[in-house]
Automatic annotation (TrEMBL):
Pfam families assigned to the protein according to its UniProt record, in alphabetical order: Glyco_transf_4, Glycos_transf_1
Domain Glycosyl transferase family: 189-350
Protein name from the UniProt record: N-acetyl-alpha-D-glucosaminyl L-malate synthase BshA
An annotated GO BP: bacillithiol biosynthetic process
Naturally occurring in which organism (per UniProt): Pinibacter aurantiacus
Length: 372
């Protein structure tokens, strides 16, 4: 198949998932065309079946807001015609689903029929898409998509709750390439972070309000009272200055490192002992699944789709949003004794394997085939 993939090329979960899907499809001999405004961060290897088409948005003094969506639709039309695409798969509804609708209509005039598949990832529905500034367009373009998929049952339910959707939404869970996350820890790296063999606790996100970063800091503060530990913050975003300030106030700064955006998550996960995900909402929690794949247990909230990937008391623990006390107690329980930690690590890795890329990608292929 010749597949056009549209996504955000950033470190966000939707872009990561879309890129990993494209890479997996290319490895299965499909021709994959990424249409994005920047090279996706996870698109870091050469593959003869992968093509990258950059969307250029020319500026003009009249434009206070350069019309990205128009440029994107035009790019989709161009790639669809010149590379004879069989279908367009867009990730994250805004503005990709409406841009795809426009491209589809233009192509129809050229006598080309191209199915559009929209994958919903989370905030496109639960936060941004629900806003009345976007909702009518999001609803319309979802209904005009030939198929809609959601990355969790919870996201599907949320979509039906808040939008008038006239067709079925298929749940295709996110996946992880388990083999990629089975890395041996690099001792030298571990020594730099935890010179005295302290436990390494990790949080990775875009540091938006929805992640409740203050809860991460507070849980870590409780852990530190009970055992020697270090906290690694991976990623960047609006709440980072607040988190840094909080760490200074709580006198934790020497035990916390902010390492910014990182491409090699598997190396960081390989030295980590616990992943913290304190979010108000996660449609799925891909970062937590990647942690589990690397054998890192997860302390999380029970929000959104997280219960679809976590096994309570086995791969980690889930608590109500904001229950810092319980999350801390569970974290300390996991980290305190080697034997307990090893059991959690083993179970996390084993359970993550059920979401392996080889189990999930065929579900997308099967969906594509229905439209060809
Ligand atoms: O977490 C974010 O805010 C980024 C966002 C994205 O679209 O890149 O993540 C969403 O999609 C991920 C991949 O499907 C999910 O794993 C995340 O749970 C989801 N985030 C939210 O629902 C807040």
């Amino acid at each position: 198949m010749r597949i056009g993939i549209v996504c955000y090329p950033t470190f966000g979960g939707s872009g990561v998932l879309a890129t990993e899907l494209g890479k997996a499809l290319a490895n299965k001999n499909h021709q994959v065309h990424f249409i994005t405004y920047q090279q996706p961060v996870r698109l870091n290897e050469f593959n003869a079946n992968i093509f990258y088409h950059e969307v250029h948005v020319p500026t003009y003094p009249l434009f206070d807001y350069p019309p990205y969506e128009t440029a994107l639709s035009s790019a989709m039309v161009d790639v669809a015609i010149n590379h004879q695409l069989d279908l367009l798969h867009v990730h994250y509804a805004i503005p990709h689903a409406s841009a795809a609708y426009m491209a589809k209509k233009i192509l129809e005039k050229e006598g080309i029929k191209i199915p559009v598949i929209t994958t919903l990832h989370g905030t496109d529905i639960t936060l941004v898409g629900r806003d009345k500034t976007y909702a009518p367009v999001v609803t319309f373009s979802m209904n005009e998509s030939d198929a809609i998929t959601a990355v969790s049952q919870n996201l599907k339910d949320e979509t039906f709750k808040f939008f008038k959707i006239e067709k079925d939404i298929e749940v295709i869970h996110n996946f992880v390439d388990v083999s990629r996350f089975r890395k041996k820890p690099i001792d030298a790296f571990k020594k730099v972070i935890a010179p005295n063999n302290e436990r390494i606790v990790l949080h990775a996100s875009n540091f938006r309000k929805v992640k409740r970063i203050a809860d991460v800091v507070n849980v870590f503060a409780e852990i530190r009272k009970e055992l020697p530990a270090k906290l690694l913050f991976v990623g960047d975003g609006p709440e980072r200055p607040m988190a840094e300030e909080m760490c200074r106030k709580l006198d934790l700064y020497s035990d916390i490192r902010f390492v910014g955006k990182q491409e090699q998550m598997e190396e960081i996960l390989a030295v980590s002992d616990l992943f913290l995900l304190t979010s108000e909402y996660e449609s799925f929690g891909l970062a937590a699944l990647e942690a589990m794949a690397a054998g890192v247990p997860v302390i999380s909230t029970n929000a959104g789709g997280i219960p679809e990937i976590q096994l309570q008391g086995k791969t980690g623990y889930m608590s109500n949003v904001g229950d810092v006390k319980e999350m801390s107690e569970h974290a300390i329980h996991i980290l305190k004794e080697d034997a307990v930690l090893q059991e959690f690590k083993k179970r996390a890795a084993k359970h993550a394997a059920t979401f392996d890329i080889h189990n999930i990608v065929p579900q997308y292929e099967e969906l594509y085939n229905r439209f060809l």
